[in-house]
Every structure is written in C-alpha cells, then in structure tokens.
Amino acid sequence: MAVRFGGEGNDVGRALALSPGGDVVLAASFGTAVELGGERTPGGGAGIARISTAGAVMAEYVGIGVSVEDVAVTSDDRLVLAARTRGGPASLVGTELGDFATFDAVAASLDAAGELEWVHVFGDAGSDLFEAVAVDDAGSAYLAGSFEVALEPGGGAVYANGRDDMLLVSYDAAGAHRWTRVYGERDGDFARSISLDPASTRIVVGASFGDDGGSGGVGVPLDLDGVSVEGGGRGTGVVFVME
Q1: What strand order describes the sheet that includes 129-135?
Q2: Which of 52, 28, 31, 55 is nearest to 43 (CA)?
Q3: Which of 3, 166, 199, 229 is deepest in the core (most CB within 10 A)?
Q4: How far, in Å, CA of 14 to CA of 196, rounded?
Q5: pLDDT at 72
Q6: ∠ CA 39-119-15 to the nearest 5 degrees?
Q7: Average confidence (pLDDT) over 34-55
Q8: CB 229 within 8 A of CB 219
Q9: How many Å is the Cα radius of gyration of the chain?
Q10: Closest CA relative to residue 45, chosen from 55, 57, 56, 31
C-alpha cells in the first residue's frame, strides 16, 4: 500500500508515529496548496494523515505558516506536535498564532478528533524551533530543539550562551509547563531527537554541539549537568541521558 500527498511545491513527510490502535500517523509540510482530506488547502503549510491498519486514510490540514517537525501519539490517542513557524502569518487548526519575522518554536496538542487542545508559541529575534517530541504514559510531552537569543517557554525566561543552544522543555497533558533545560556554550548546539525508556524514568537526547560555522577551530567543551564533553570544531554528535 502506498499513499501519496503533494502538489507542485516542495512537499516533505517530516515524521511518523504509531497510535495505540496501530494507525500510522504522518506529519507533512507542503510548499503550495494540495488536495488533503478531500479538500484543497488554502496554501502551503502542515498536514496530518492517519492511515489505519485496514488502509483507510484520514487527512487533516493543520495550518498555514507552520512546519511540523515531529509528532508523538499519547496512550489516549492525542497528538503532540513539535513545530516551528515559517515566517509570516501562521495559524494552527483555526487558531491564529500571529505574524512572525523569523522561526518561532511551537508545541501543540490535538485531541483524538483533531481539535486543538493547547498550543505554546515562543521565540525572540533569532531562529527558535522544536525538532523532536516524545510522550510518557501520563501524556506529558518532552520536546527537543534549539534557540538563538532568549525565550520564555514557561517558568521564566532562558538565555542562550552562544550562537544556538539546546532547548529541552516538558509540558503535562493539559499543557502546563513542567520544566526547561538549556545546554550550550559558545558555538552552535542543537538537540535533534528525544525518547524515553519504557519506564519513563530516563530521557535520552540525541544532539550535536560545537558547530563553529565550518571554521574548523577547536570547539568549546559542552557541560552536561557537570559532565564535560569534548568536541571538534565542525560539530560533534552526542547522546546523553537525563534522569
């Protein structure tokens, strides 16, 4: 079985997840208007498609001016999105988010019917985004990304130490802020992926750090809660565990 979505623009399948019932959930971004869910979308943006175990397809246009980078499905079939704005006006499931000059980070939750439950949008003058999301059995969300200058994801403002810093944020099932963690030094540091162990007692993060823009210099060591990790000047991959 193959399912195709797309139009004349740059259309990308961003992420896949499995629902508790075995449905495949696809998050995609579209460069121009496309046929989705039996209707033509008003323009480029993001969409979610559910493909059942029987092959039935249910697709939904999520919003314009937004790119969904990752999706996770909770035990009660809610969708949690890790996303970013794309510059310009943005909306998500009929909710206007604002008009953005740069990328801003977006975290959102949709119920089993595809209706928006909660959304958080934050950023500053720089490029801020979430790239990955995981959920635990209680429905709490864990998001990974990066930011450039300063932002307020909940619980107070946080500030970058260098060009880009890793950003890890957790919200409970109702969208209330739980905690924020920031890791980074002088050069570019990016949290790329996140997952939980089966007991949800440890958080595993995949990241890159020490990207000095290609100059090839010696990168600054990364401090991970008191553990110093040495890196090179063109970026170094690292996997670390938070408890």
Answers
A1: 129-135, 141-147, 165-171, 177-183
A2: 31
A3: 166
A4: 20
A5: 96
A6: 60
A7: 77
A8: no
A9: 18
A10: 31
